[in-house]
């Protein structure tokens, strides 16, 4: 906190970190956040008032709120993606892949994903996370997005691994996760939040403002600072017609996620001043777009590093100053455009 904020002359910014969904492509924002932590000289969670994520973004967000550094998160996902999206090693698994192509069952067994999440979060509860953390899922029964919040009393005792399992249950890839959302004990079928809010930025802003109002500390939008990280933007259009039901379904799922991501980005950019909304995203080829192709991880990391060299590194340095309550470098700001910052 700087002197002006200490003396109450300028309110401390309310800082939000959001991470999109994107399967194996989650390695992209991890590398960018790792660079951000170097500028912050510490873990990103120590410079946030709220963290929000969808799907792999929920896993990463909860990991950061549990005390994980970006370096640790990178190692976790490099190993974890191979567990979650493992290649078939038995006749049973090969049979599952064949049935998945015909649309008869999910492509992956849930046991592997659940074992991975349990190994990461163990017995951690939502109420243990600091700062307050949101994980987005989709309630198939009520047909609406469901926001798990560590700040809500009814969610504080929920196990983090189970919340992340609900947030990552992408249709066609995994079966929905049945879980009780409160102490009523009624179990709901939960699916990937990316179906309607792959980019959690707008819901994060809304939740933060409404929660602050509930505590008597309303946060004006002009004081909200958002660091929003994407997982790569595939090219628009479909160059090849899918040959299986799974291919068609996967294409539709990707279209839903891409459309929701872009809409929320435009909305957030409209809601917040340019200096307060920092979106980090890069284009990727159609070949790198699949959510579950672990063979792409090395190339995805190369794409992330290339984006840093193309100007994102400087922006992350300025974002670090913004999160720390320091003024932006005047020469950098005057030489940038609103699109570059937002």
From TrEMBL:
Keywords: Hydrolase, Lipid degradation, Lipid metabolism. A motif (DGA/G) lies at residues 192-194. A motif (GXGXXG) lies at residues 21-26. InterPro entries: Acyl_Trfase/lysoPLipase, PNPLA_dom, Teg/CotR/CapV-like. The active site is at 55 (nucleophile), 192 (proton acceptor). It holds the Pfam family Patatin. GO terms for molecular function: hydrolase activity. GO terms for biological process: lipid catabolic process. The keyword Hydrolase applies. Residues 17-205 form the PNPLA domain. A motif (GXSXG) lies at residues 53-57. PANTHER family: INTRACELLLAR PHOSPHOLIPASE A FAMILY, PHOSPHOLIPASE A2. This is Patatin-like phospholipase.
